[in-house]
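Need tokens for this chain, all 155 residues.
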Amino acid sequence: MNTSVPTILLINGPNLNMLGRREIEHYGSFTLADVVRLCRSEAEQAGCRILDFQSNHEGEILDFIHAHLDDAAGMLINAGAFTHYSYALLDALKLCPYPVIEVHISDIAKREAFRQISVIRPACSSTVSGHGIHSYTKALAELTQRLAAETGKQV
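Here are the structure tokens for all 155 residues:
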């Protein structure tokens, strides 16, 4: 992995591989490939690279986080349904020595009661929710600004 360019992990959880096909009224018509493409473009402009990962399996997400504890500068995570009940994911995110931003496409505060609960939030520096595909770009901009402030140079 190229360590001269900061790496930002982009993790998407269950069913996010079905973007563009599921509940268009909540998630829009864009695909996960669109999300990754947009984030890569924005990250390049900020002097970072994106390492993306999606899984419908909780353990695979945990393993990916564990594998990148020492080689990433930050993380964007849309944990999907794991947001609402995965204490294992919370514990993995607490291990991260870098900032983690929780991302949601829809405004979870205006959704079903169970979706308004985030058990992973305590491990995240902030949450961006309700901006469609732009939730990712807003979170990425926030993260790169934070990294620039911490390092004292443009990221």
